[in-house]
Design goal:
five-stranded antiparallel sheet, mainly beta, disordered N terminus, Maltoporin, Chain A
């Protein structure tokens, strides 16, 4: 009962606010409010003796309802069918295959080391997952509660959308901050859920991968009806995926990429004026020296650092100094790591509306998505120099009296994999409730206001995530195990500091330990995240005057929203008492924004249209600039089948709350680096720990967006059926959040710190013995960025009477440059030169065949090998990542009792991803298609 009351309490305040807003609107309306309007929001045209009424509608990129879907701004529109026929496993996968997606979009793949296991995002233009605003039915929703990417970035999880209810999506590509607010820097993705569906439909599906058995089972139901003035729609769906372990795929099961590295043709280059041959021995290359062996140095048996790095050839219960060997035992963590997490999703959506009269329609939308993800990571690695001892004032060590310490001295440096504690398991549950009450309708006609519509809404949305970390090992328990434990008499071990050393059972750093140690060491460590978003908005639009080209459209609106984020950590996190884990206290932050926005659409002539829009936002954050962010656009139609358009817009993005208030985020570099304090010592080549703390002094980022393009679609003649567009885009960004690692390599930072150069000295933290502990890497408003490119689309429809209808569509995005502080990153893994898709379909009677070809351009990239001095600069490894082609094929039959049966295969030719020898999975996880071929069958029945 307490849980029910808590859930209902989430929605109480928004309901009260809406009722008050609705009452105010009713009381303020003139007497004619209840009278019928002559033509509510519609235009009539006459063809012969028939009168056709054409309803106006709102297109993303403009808040003014219109008859012409081609607005001043470029908008890509895809229906649910368009998305499904792309042939990808999920809705989010299909969205990411759009050529406009770039950079690091987050996927559930390789979730073992992710801040956000199981999440799916969209990264428009590669400008950042938090720079594309995602709307649901034209309104915002709460971002995923757990900050992702760098542990600080707010982003929307596409998996939180009830995808069975999706009707279509609009993608605004030229920036929409002037209308929609600060998140819309790169553009707006508006997911439209069904509203007026009538009938019922039931669907079931089964999918599985070729190289491994990982079935996905799914089912959905849709029901809608209208009776008089009322309508109701309900949708529910369920999906269950068994997951894939990295060891299940031949191309991800080994962290040692030495054998495949030759496919990337790695070679040494230097950034300075020196000759690389002066630095390297003849014939030396990064493959021969094991640079692409990404296995961990924390293995079994463990190693210790004394005058050398010592370990043993195999696990032993009788370690002696005589049988110790110099070296370490690499650990292949891919054998224990999740590649694709086991997930389960339940989603529910309902919408009900009632038309009181032409002036008022009331509607309510309720949705809830529940996601579960189970993710495994390899057992915890423990590095003595990085961990606390019995308390936070001491460091971990192996005591001289430990029965398995043959050297008889306290050992403070070494590493080992805690296989006794078992794999680290993250059980992640995410709930995304959303409630919207809205009122809308036609405004009463007056002398100056005709055909005006209005709408108002109160929205409450929430994302709550709980991550139950199993297999967590507290520092103090590891130290106690090294100092010796006692039998508790119940089949377990306990810590007793007063027990004689001779009666203790000691943890063996070099051998296989009693299973009781695993039970003693391992604890559960739950961490909770909450993000809420509540808003009230009021909006009206309509014509105000007549120009030669048509009526001037005006849109006016107000929006108030409240956003809050919080992270609730345990005492173990707050004190940093977790082996290999992050340190951070609980924190919360909130923000309130008041926004006024306006838009004017001016059809100056039949062939000339102009748009002016602006948004004024007032933030509760101190020091944020208050000003109008404008947008100007123009559309020219020199021929009835040709449109030329251009726009300019300013955007203003406030830092995500985590960037301001996060207590601490700990990350590790993907690759291993040499420590210049120990030149040439392979034992000091490791991943580098990076610590980031929130900075409340950060300021917003600003962006100028330029767009120009053409769209064509001949309606007659030999080119009838042909359509397409060419769009040019440019984003100029200032005051972007940046870290010192954006300007200096890790090796340079370490080298400059050793030389006493500020501010690097304070950034690099070492142990008393000189071992590297971590680098402090705060964010600052420092970067500038200029991004420029082209989008090209060509499509052709060819209907025939005898052979059915043929359709083809080609999309290409060509990135001219992406310069961050003057350095062009296009042509690297950060930005591909171009991506393309080719789609074809054939419809014949009850059959439909679809093929989608996705081409991802290959690239060269560089990896930092080490800083070699001022004359040589950085020694880099240049390598190549090949092109990738992903082919999806589907066949659909609809001639059986209103039943649709679809058979499909994604990644038809079962192509493995191109080799990236620096990647954990031997490939570029975030920028290539990683999954093997998958076959699927879906059956959908309408009633």
């Amino acid at each position: 009962m307490k849980t029910t009351n808590k859930v209902l309490g989430v929605f109480t305040r928004p309901v009260q606010l809406l009722l008050c807003a609705g009452a105010a609107l009713l009381l303020s309306a003139p007497a004619s409010f209840g009278q019928a309007a002559s033509q509510p929001a519609a235009t009539t045209t006459t063809t012969g003796t028939d009168v056709v009424q054409m309803q106006k509608y709102e297109v993303t990129g403009s808040r003014i309802k219109r008859l012409d879907s081609e607005t001043v701004s470029p908008v890509v529109q895809l229906t649910q069918s368009d998305i499904q026929v792309k042939g990808f496993p999920t809705f989010a996968d299909a969205i990411r295959s759009l050529t406009f997606n770039g950079g690091e979009a987050l996927t559930p793949i390789d979730a073992g080391t992710s801040f956000t296991p199981g999440i799916s995002t969209f990264n428009l233009r590669g400008l950042g997952n938090n720079n594309t605003l995602v709307l649901i039915n034209g309104r915002r929703a709460a971002s995923y509660a757990t900050p992702g990417y760098d542990g600080l970035q707010s982003m929307f999880d596409l998996n939180s959308i009830p995808d069975a209810a999706i009707e279509s999506m609009d993608l605004l590509k030229d920036g929409g901050s002037a209308l929609y607010g600060s998140d819309a820097v790169a553009g707006v993705l508006n997911i439209k859920l069904r509203k007026d569906y009538q009938g019922s439909q039931f669907s079931v599906g089964y999918k599985n991968y070729f190289n491994t058995s990982s079935p996905t089972k799914e089912a959905s139901v849709l029901m809608g009806t209208r009776s008089g003035k009322a309508s109701v729609f309900v949708a529910g769906s369920w999906r269950d995926n068994a997951g894939i372990m990295a060891r299940d795929l031949y191309y991800t099961r080994n962290a040692d990429n030495t054998d495949i590295a030759h496919k990337a043709n790695p070679r040494f280059v230097v950034t300075g004026t020196g000759d690389v041959n002066d630095l390297l021995d003849p014939g030396e290359n990064p493959i021969d020296d094991g640079f692409f062996d990404n296995r961990s140095g924390s293995g079994i048996p463990g190693y210790v650092n004394l005058d050398n790095r010592y370990t043993f050839d195999g696990p032993t219960n009788h370690p002696t100094t005589a049988n110790a060997v110099i070296g370490y035992n690499p650990y292949n963590y891919q054998q224990d790591t999740t590649f694709l997490p086991k997930t389960r999703t339940y989603s529910f959506y309902t919408r009900g509306s009632y038309d009181f009269n032409p002036y008022i329609t009331a509607a309510v939308e309720v949705s809830l998505t529940h996601n579960e993800a189970n993710v495994c990571a390899a057992p915890t690695p423990v590095v003595l120099a990085n961990e606390h001892g019995l308390d936070t004032t001491t460091s971990m060590y192996i005591p001289s009296y430990n029965a398995f310490n043959p050297w008889g001295v306290d050992i403070t440096s070494g590493a080992r994999r805690l296989v006794e504690a078992g794999p680290r398991i993250n059980n992640v549950t995410a709930d995304s409730p959303r409630l919207l009450f809205s009122l809308s309708g036609q405004l009463p006609e007056t002398t100056f206001f005709k055909d005006w519509t209005w709408d108002a809404g109160v929205l409450h949305s929430r994302s709550s995530v709980t991550n139950l970390n199993q297999g967590t090992v507290p520092d103090y328990r590891m130290q106690q195990a090294l100092m010796g434990l006692l039998d508790d008499g119940n089949g377990g071990l306990i810590w007793s500091p007063t027990a004689p050393a001779s009666e203790r059972t000691y943890f063996n750093w070099f051998g296989v330990n009693d299973p009781r140690f695993g039970k003693f060491l391992s604890v559960n460590n739950p961490v909770s995240f909450i993000n809420t978003f509540s808003s009230f908005d009021l909006h009206a639009s309509g014509p105000v005057a007549q120009l030669p080209g048509g009526p001037i459209g005006v849109s006016l609106g107000y929006e108030h929203y409240m956003q809050s984020s919080g992270v609730y950590q345990t005492d173990l996190n707050a004190t940093g008492n977790i082996i290999g884990g992050s340190m951070g206290s609980s924190w919360d932050g909130n923000r309130k924004v008041d926004a006024f926005f306006a838009e004017v659409d001016m059809p100056i002539l039949k062939w000339l249209e102009a748009q002016v829009a602006g948004r004024y936002e007032k933030y509760s954050d101190d020091g944020f600039q208050k000003r109008v962010r404008p947008k100007f656009g123009i559309k020219v139609r020199p021929l009835d089948w040709l449109i030329v358009r251009a726009s300019y817009a300013q955007s203003y993005r406030a830092p995500d709350l985590a960037y301001l208030y996060e207590s601490q985020v700990t990350t590790f570099t993907a690759s291993q680096y040499y420590d210049p304090a120990f030149p040439g010592d392979q034992s000091h080549r490791n991943q580098i720990q990076m610590n980031v703390v929130g900075n409340p002094e950060l300021k917003p980022e600003t962006t100028d967006t330029y767009y120009a393009g053409i769209a064509f679609e001949p309606q007659r003649g030999p080119l009838k059926g042909l359509g397409g567009s060419i769009d040019f885009f440019r984003f100029n960004q200032k005051n972007l959040l940046a870290q010192m690692t954006d300007f200096f390599s890790y090796s340079s930072i370490l080298s400059y710190a050793l030389q006493g150069v500020d501010p690097f000295v304070d950034m690099v933290k070492r142990s008393p013995a000189g071992d590297l502990l971590y680098i402090n890497n705060p964010y600052m408003n420092e970067q500038t960025r200029k991004t420029q490119g082209l989008d090209v689309e060509v499509n052709y429809t060819w209907p025939t009477k005898k052979y059915g209808e043929f359709y083809g569509k080609f999309d290409l995005t060509y990135n001219i440059y992406d310069k961050i502080d003057g350095i062009n990153y296009i042509g690297s893994t950060y930005g591909r030169r171009w991506n393309a898709t080719l789609y074809g379909s054939w419809k014949y009677r009850d059959w439909r065949v679809n093929m989608n070809i996705w081409y991802l351009r290959g690239t060269d990239d560089y990896l930092d090998y080490g800083f070699m001095g001022d004359d040589y600069g950085e020694l880099l490894i240049k390598y190549h990542i090949d092109d990738q082609i992903v082919v999806n094929l589907g066949v659909t039959y609809t001639g059986f009792w209103k039943t649709e049966i679809t058979l499909g295969v994604s990644n038809l030719f079962n192509q493995r991803p191109p080799v990236d020898p620096t990647g954990t999975d031997g490939a570029l996880t975030y920028n290539n298609w990683m999954l093997p071929a998958m076959w699927s069958i879906t059956v959908s029945k309408k009633f």
